[in-house]
Write a structure and sequence with these properties.
With 290 residues, this protein is mainly alpha-helical. It has 11 helices and 2 strands, in the order ββααααααααααα. Helix 2 crosses helix 11. Bound molecules: heme C (HEC) (2 copies).
Length: 290
Amino acid sequence: MADKKRIDEVTGFETTGHVWDDDLEELNKPLPKWWLYVLYASIIWAIGYWVLYPAWPLASDYTRGYLGYSQRAVVMEQVAAGKAAQAQFRDAIGKAELAEIQNKPDLLNFALAGGKAAFGDNCAPCHGRGAEGSMGYPNLNDDDWIWGGDLAAIERTIRHGIRSADADTRAGDMPKFGTDKLLEPAQIDDVAEHVLSLSGKASDQEAAIRGAAVFAENCTACHGETGKGNLELGAPNLIDGIWLYGTDKTDIVTSIETGRGGVMPPWHTRLDDVTIKQLAVYVHALGGGQ
Ligand code: HEC
Ligand code: HEC
């Protein structure tokens, strides 16, 4: 064998000495050295990795690796760091007056983001995702307020609710003029026409004129001489064309007959102080705020 090794004239490579069919010789061309070294290095690296990091599945566990690394632990650390950063802001919001929060951009941003999230979780079922409201649930985007739209008023409404069981609830009931027979059906029809005329919508002018007298006698105590409402009593403005209970005459007649009496729960029993403040700032920002 060994004597059959020779230098091939054409390529200049040594042959291995293997010969087939008498004249077919094999050139000795091993893997390049660099390639082998890369292979060995990869093997060493892989073994090192197995030792240091989690690698091999076992029957009910896995090899944990010498460094004890775990992606879950890394995420938990990041979450904890995020919470710590939040804690700073929550602390600051807890101590600040509502107006101060509005004046500090970083606190304001944090309050708006937190308020938006809390609104989606707690308020959207009634007021809508975009706070656009619906029949019986006020739109919080317009700058038209039943109970007041400055920061303090909004916070109070959220904290204690409306016609709720809370001791400090916002309260104010409209008489049930129909149910309790305080007015005749004809009078209710007339005063409904008058109410429509207040926002320029009456269809029966004569009834509206008769209704004005009924209004002056029965309604102004709460809705005011001109019908512009009263925030203290939660009596809505009747002249702005924005309706809580619908724009049709039948809706208005129903309001007069039943007094409605919308209820909103109090939130200080369910949400912490910081969240309520965030919500007040968020809602105030939605409506432009008074
Ligand atoms: C169960 C339904 C319900 C939920 C939930 C609810 N609200 Fe209300 N909210 C109402 C009703 C009904 C009114 C109007 C009551 C009335 O005056 O007739 C109202 C009124 C308000 C008002 C007063 C608007 C004005 O014009 O003065 C604010 C502010 C408000 N809600 C904010 C919130 C916030 C913030 C949340 C979430 C923490 C929330 N609401 C959750 C039903 C709800
Ligand atoms: C004691 C106070 C009080 C008196 C008196 C009163 N209201 Fe009201 N009115 C309210 C309150 C409070 C509401 C809001 C009810 C609610 O939010 O559920 C209201 C709501 C209404 C609404 C619904 C408004 C909307 O946006 O949908 C109409 C219409 C209305 N009143 C008309 C009248 C008329 C007409 C009279 C007189 C016949 C009258 N009210 C007398 C307190 C009063």
